[in-house]
Design goal:
alpha/beta; 268 residues; 9-stranded parallel beta sheet; 11-stranded mixed beta sheet; UDP N-Acetylglucosamine Acyltransferase, domain 1; 2 domains
Length: 268
């Protein structure tokens, strides 16, 4: 075991000799830390937390009771290959959450960015790529191979289908099933996941000015109402707009995807 002298470990915790425990870490009673785990400085494991697998937890993160972090994928094609889970800085993994390692067929790494909040009972499946400042509300289910951009919020009891991409700054309402890609800054709601406008509240909180929001609203109208296919409309935005947020949406739509897109239901 590589144990920094400032780390504090409760005598009732079980720490494998192969684990690497950084400066200022605190490990509570009845925690389990596996042999391939690295806890960076000032990670806190509260009682009964389990961190196992080839897992790395970034500095200043907290894992709450009964969370299970780094267990093997829920994928029948997985046969024990060495795959990883990498969690960024300042993560908060709340009670009962489950985060799995990757699979060889999916790139081998499940990745969580910095400053993420994974709330009670949420699940992050194998090979998911989660950006920075993402919030997964209570009992969210993120399937394998999902990509969530920075600043995404997924409402409680919602599910994201495997291989779906959700663009930066999008928000998914509660009790929503998302089976297709979501454009950056999109607002998705309804039980079967309908694109219902832009995440205007999130844009304002981010500090986007009125001109930027006006440009995004016009881009949304183009995607909803102009002639041609959805991809044709995205190409028009890419060719005609010089707004970086609008171009981000266009490039997201035009990039390679394994799913189709949620498309606007109206010109809002």
């Amino acid at each position: 075991m590589t144990l920094h002298p400032t780390a504090r470990i409760h005598p009732a915790a079980v720490i494998d000799p192969g684990a690497r425990i950084g400066e200022g870490c605190q490990i509570g009673p009845f925690c389990l830390v596996g042999p391939e785990v690295t806890l960076h400085p000032r990670v806190t494991l509260k009682s009964h937390a389990v961190v196992t697998g080839w897992t790395e937890v970034g500095e200043d993160s907290t894992i709450f009771p009964f969370a299970t972090v780094g267990e093997v994928p829920q994928d029948l094609k997985y046969h024990g290959e060495p795959t990883r889970l990498v969690i960024g800085k300042r993560a908060r993994i709340r009670e009962g959450a489950t985060l799995n390692t990757g699979t060889a067929g999916g790139g081998g790494v499940t990745r969580i960015g910095d400053d993420c909040l994974v709330m009670t009972g949420a699940h992050v499946g194998h090979d998911a790529q989660i950006g920075n400042r993402v919030i997964l509300v209570n009992h969210v289910a993120i399937a394998g191979h999902v990509t969530l951009g920075d600043d995404v919020i997924v409402g409680g009891l919602s599910g994201i289908h495997q291989w779906v991409r959700v663009g930066q700054g999008a928000i998914i309402g509660a009790v929503t099933m998302v089976t297709n890609d979501v454009i950056p800054y999109g607002l998705v709601q309804a039980p079967r996941g309908e694109l219902d406008g832009l995440n205007l509240v999130g844009l304002k909180r981010r500090g986007v000015d009125r001109a930027g929001i006006t440009a995004l609203r016009a881009a949304y109208q183009t995607l909803a109402q102009e002639d041609g296919s959805f991809l044709d409309r995205a190409r028009k935005l890419s060719e005609e707009s010089d707004n970086p947020l609008v171009r981000e949406i266009a490039e997201f739509i035009l990039s390679k995807s394994d799913r189709s897109f949620l498309t606007p239901k109206g010109g809002r």
